[in-house]
Amino acid sequence: IGKGGTMKSYLLQEECIRTSLERKQNSLYCNLEMSDITFFDRVWATMFQESMTDMVRDGKITEQNIESYAFSVKELMANYLHIFSDVDVEPSDIEGIIKRKEDEIKGKIILSGIDSVGGMKELGDNEGVNAKRISKYLKEAAKNTNSAILLINHARNDCPDVMRDCSPFVRGGSKFIDNCDAYLSLSKVVDKEASNFEKDPKDIVFKKSFKYLRFVNKRGSGNTISKIIEFGDYGRVVVKEDNPIDYEINSFESGGYTFKM
Questions:
Q1: Which among 247, 184, 244, 248 has a CA at the least distance from the CA of 11?
Q2: Which of 113, 163, 226, 228 could form a Cys-Cys staple with 12, CB 3.0–4.6 A?
Q3: End-to-end CA distance of the chain
Q4: 189 vs 37 pLDDT, higher one
Q5: Rounded to whole angstroms, how far apart are CA atoms 69 and 227?
Q6: Sign of the CA dihedral 238, 243, 249, 250?
Q7: Neighbours of 113 (CB within 10 A)
Q8: CA 19, 25, 1: angle at the middle one, nearest 5?
Q9: DSSP-based three-state secondary structure for 236
Q10: CA-CA distances (angstroms) from residue 251 to 57, 98, 105, 192, 226?
């Protein structure tokens, strides 16, 4: 869950790609909003830690070796990292999509990432009813396929940029959260040096690559985990060891900026 600019898609893609690349487990990315070419580029960048464009420019990719690079990406996407692209998908279709892919690859999908709620077909104009219907179908799909399903949903525009738990502002309201076993909330991190706290109103600038992540375990222990994370080059996620609350107090308290917990 998060507002625009909190890099929700990057985090979801990273999890699916790493599940396939490093754990050699099958994941399915349901791409309901982004082009397949963009997704391919992000897989490439994650694998080689450079974009294809930069590698061509720097002479690392040549006519002699491009097929070797391309084969590595295609092999990963053929064997472990699978993609489904469509628009206006019915929430009730997701279970069938997962099972058909498992039949096709003759293997088990352990993780499905869905990007995003906004790409799913809506029935009627009631956002709350649609959100509850989507989360209900996906919960059933997760149980019936015995797999994890991660779904991106957006926070409303009136959510404060530094609201650390965005769930009260999720599109569709509490009815969406009710069917989730857990959720991740992403929010922005203030850049103290670039911000002007003396100005009225305050001129707040946010760090581009740093985000605040809060994980809430609803069904299990009920515990939360909070981390400052950095999206490195080409979207790779790096978890910082700083205690995020100490980090904010030490960095920003003198600026008089209030953080919403």
A1: 184
A2: 113
A3: 15
A4: 189
A5: 34
A6: negative
A7: 25
A8: 35
A9: coil
A10: 39, 45, 49, 7, 17
User: Cis bond leading into 147, ω under 30°?
Assistant: no
Listed residue (228, 12, 186) closest to 114, CA to CA: 12
Count the alpha carbons within 13 Å of 226 in the hemisphere toward its beta carbon.
13
pLDDT at residue 247, as a whole number:
64
- Give the position of tokens 């084969």: 71
Q: Which residue has the tokens 């740093």?
A: 210
Handedness of CA 23, 24, 26, 30 (dihedral sign): positive
Q: Which residue has the higher pLDDT, 202 or 96?
A: 96
As a whole number of angstroms, the distance between CA 194 and CA 204 comes to 8
Decide if pLDDT at 255 tops 60.
no
Q: Is the pLDDT of residue 35 over 50?
A: yes
Q: If you ran DSSP here, which 8-state letter would residue 108 be given?
A: -
